[in-house]
Amino acid sequence: MLQAAVGDDPRFEISDHELQAGGVSYTIDTVRHFCARFPNDTLYWIIGADQPARLHLWREIEELAKRVEFIVLDRPGHTWVERTDIPGLRLQRCTGHLVDISSTELRERIRGGLPVNYFLPHKTVEYIRKTGLYR
User: Fold this and answer.
1) Do 116 and 85 have their domain in common?
2) Could you tell me which residues come within 8 angstroms of residue 80 by beta carbon, excluding any fewer than 6 positions away?
3) Alpha helices, DSSP H only, in 44-121?
4) Residue 6 carries which DSSP code?
5) CA 32 → CA 5, 16, 29, 59, 102, distances in Å?
6) Which domain range does residue 119 map to?
7) What is the pTM for the complete model shown?
8) Residue 99 clears pLDDT 80, i.e. is over it
């Protein structure tokens, strides 16, 4: 689906690192991989506004906070939470037009035969239809 969504856009690169690694995937392990692969780059990790309050539960969050800057996307029903209890944590709030739909709701719409055209890139919708995902 990622290939369908952004595969033709040269600004994006899709990695299958977590799939190739297999097993349980922890953010810190993925970040270590990309830090080694791109040692001179700044890494950003995109999360929803529901996650800052839960970051203290993430595996090795203090190391993770040193390695990435978190981009926090506003989500309906969640208020901005600034954290000061995790050393080195950098949060950048990303505001904009909020779409009040979850991935669960998208899958339910697809199962029910309802349109998702305005929520997903056209090529992704076509891929889902072609493969029968979520039916």
Assistant:
1) no
2) 49, 52, 72, 74, 93
3) 61-67, 103-111
4) H
5) 26, 15, 5, 13, 29
6) 101-135
7) 0.82
8) no
